[in-house]
Write a structure and sequence with these properties.
Elements lengths: L1 H4 L14 H12 L13 H4 L1 H10 L2 E6 L2 E6 L2 H8 L6 E2 L5 H7 L8 H11 L5 H27 L6 E5 H18 L6 H18 L4 H4 L4 H28 L15 H9 L1 H5 L8 H32 L1 H14 L13 H6 L1 H13 L6 E5 L3 E3 L2 E3 L4 E4 L1 H4 L3 H4 L38 H18 E5 L8 E2 L3 E2 L5 E6 L3
Parallel strand pairs: 2-8
Antiparallel strand pairs: 1-2, 3-5, 4-12, 5-8, 6-7, 9-12, 10-11
Helix pairs in contact: 2-4, 6-10, 8-9, 8-21, 9-10, 9-15, 10-12, 13-15, 15-16, 15-18, 15-21, 16-18
The chain binds protoporphyrin IX containing FE.
Protoporphyrin IX containing FE binds next to helix 15 and helix 21.
């Protein structure tokens, strides 16, 4: 009633269930029996978030709905959303409601708040500096080379067709699992491969849980028990990787302290954990559990998002072959195949010259943002714009809908037009902060630069050697679980360009 008095309307409240039954009904009605879209149509909101699409039409840009008994303010008003995301005083906090997500990320930087978040972020940020990203892109290139070799073999076995149908979802999830797994946990320990498999399994379970009724999140269902078992296994494997790294580097010897644990994320985290540092009460120490959680977070936050960005970028280039040609021409000009070995990695200087590729990536992240939707929770009574919002209210931020606001992005907001990014992300729309794919403000994605470089390296390498077109089997009906995903995979016809 307090919201109604302020003119904020919304779907009716049902005792304890809130708006969830109506949301579910609209979601099903918007998907089942509804024909897939034409692959060239990027106006996907009516089938991706049909409930919000309808409620915006019925109740306006900002409305109230109920996640069970919890009130949620949903808004496509960019000014309100910027107020929430750029707040530095802790008024709007992260609060992930699905318990499985807590197992997936632990108390990693993505979930926590307040002073703990500041402490973790300080330890983690140096893992993304320029030099570290360079070595991560070397790992990216090496793993991409192996994937390209597999593609060649698949094509060679396809009976002289010079082309094969490859599901980009499977290929890129496999690729980024290997890259992010190696970057997060190193390469030297025998358990790393197993940790990657366990993390992927955990991601699948978390994804499945997003479809459950909230009551099931808290019951000892088979899935929830399985998650607990997996988590135990994961923690013990990651712990043994940590111990081995410390032993190998002699981190506990008198001279070395924590230094020399390795130059990667795990090395940095271990430096913040090693017992000598913990004794010193330095502000940037982490507990062993927190180190494990940060490794998990790095993998879980970075793997699927990066794979998803790659999948949709390749989809868009397959659907818009004119752009695929333009990007390839730029690549061959700036990164000539010449006498370089197949699959050689582009340097940072080359990447800086690949302007069209970068524009395509920004446009992909606008139209098909891997994270479609984020939320915050009011830590106290707040005034959002001119709306009084009580403590505990969820603020729903539909990134993908905000990215299609015609008032901000122009009349062609639903169309693929990388040229809008010709003068950079801040000049592409009426508001310089309109692109929210990596969020903004203090809790902006820490892996943004790495994610972008990773995708650029992979695309530069594969587009130079292969062409891509859409398989007739593709069904254009994107859905949103933990990330934005096609209904039945992303089969593309991959053709060798160099015979
Ligand atoms: C390339 C595709 C990526 C996209 C589209 C993406 C998107 C996002 C978004 C939207 C958020 C904000 C989430 C929220 O506020 O609830 C976020 C946060 C985060 N991302 Fe990414 N991300 C990507 C890649 C990565 C990578 C590669 C990593 C790490 C290796 C990473 C690590 C994180 C972390 C740790 C946070 C939490 C930051 C904080 O709360 O302080 N992300 N990301």
């Amino acid at each position: 009633r307090a919201f109604a008095r302020q003119g904020v309307r919304g779907p009716p409240y049902r005792f304890l269930a809130g708006s969830l039954p109506e949301a579910k009904q609209l979601l099903l009605a918007g998907r089942i029996g509804v024909a897939p879209l034409d692959a060239g149509c990027h106006d996907i909101m009516p089938i991706l978030l049909p409930q919000f699409h309808k409620w915006v039409a019925d109740y306006g840009r900002t409305f109230l709905f109920w996640i069970g008994p919890i009130p949620a303010v949903f808004s496509t008003d960019l000014q309100l959303i910027k107020q929430v995301l750029t707040d530095r005083t802790g008024l709007y906090q992260k609060d992930f409601m699905i318990p499985v997500l807590k197992f997936l990320f632990g108390n990693g930087v993505i979930l926590i708040n307040g002073d703990d978040w500041k402490r973790h972020r300080k330890v983690v940020l140096p893992a993304f500096n320029h030099e570290k990203i360079k070595s991560m892109s070397a790992v990216t290139a090496e793993v991409t080379k192996q994937m390209m070799q597999q593609w060649r073999e698949q094509i060679d076995q396809s009976g002289g067709e010079e082309a094969a149908e490859i599901d980009m979802i499977l290929a890129f999830n496999d690729l980024t699992s290997k890259i992010n797994g190696r970057v997060a946990f190193g390469t030297s320990h025998e358990d790393v491969e197993e940790v990657i498999v366990l993390m992927r399994e955990m991601q699948k379970l978390a994804t499945a849980a997003t479809l459950d009724a909230p009551i099931l999140w808290y019951l000892p269902t088979r899935r929830n028990l399985h998650v607990r078992r997996l988590n135990k296994q994961l923690r013990s494997k990651i712990m043994s990787i940590m111990q081995a790294r410390l032993a190998a580097k002699g981190a506990n010897d008198n001279s070395g302290g924590g230094a020399g644990c390795g130059d990667d994320l795990l090395g940095l985290l271990l430096e913040a954990w090693t017992p000598q540092r913990r004794g010193s009460a330095a502000a940037e120490t982490l507990t062993a559990d927190e180190v494990i959680d940060e490794c998990k977070t790095f993998f879980a936050a970075g793997q699927e998002t990066t794979a998803t960005l790659l999948v949709w970028a390749m989809f868009l280039l397959a659907v818009h072959p004119h752009w695929q040609d333009k990007v390839r021409d730029e690549l061959l000009r700036e990164f000539p195949a010449g006498d370089t070995a197949a699959g050689e990695a582009p340097t940072a200087d080359v990447l800086a010259q690949l302007k069209l590729l970068h524009m395509v990536l920004l446009e992909t992240s606008r139209l098909y943002p891997p994270i479609v939707y984020i939320q915050r929770r009011a830590a106290m009574d707040v005034v959002l714009g001119d709306i009084k919002v009580p403590k505990g209210t969820v603020i729903s931020i539909p990134i993908a809908m905000l990215h299609r606001d015609k008032e901000i992005w122009g009349a062609d907001a639903d169309e693929f037009n990388p040229m809008r990014f010709e003068h950079g992300a801040t000049k592409a729309a009426k508001d310089p902060k309109a692109l929210l794919s990596f969020s903004l403000g203090p809790r902006v994605c820490t892996g943004q630069s790495f994610g972008i470089v990773e995708v650029q390296v992979v695309m530069a390498m594969i587009l130079r050697k292969f062409s891509f077109s859409l398989s007739p089997k593709y069904v254009h009906k994107p859905k949103y679980l933990l990330s934005l995903t096609p209904k039945r995979g992303m089969p593309l016809i991959v053709k060798k360009l160099d015979g």
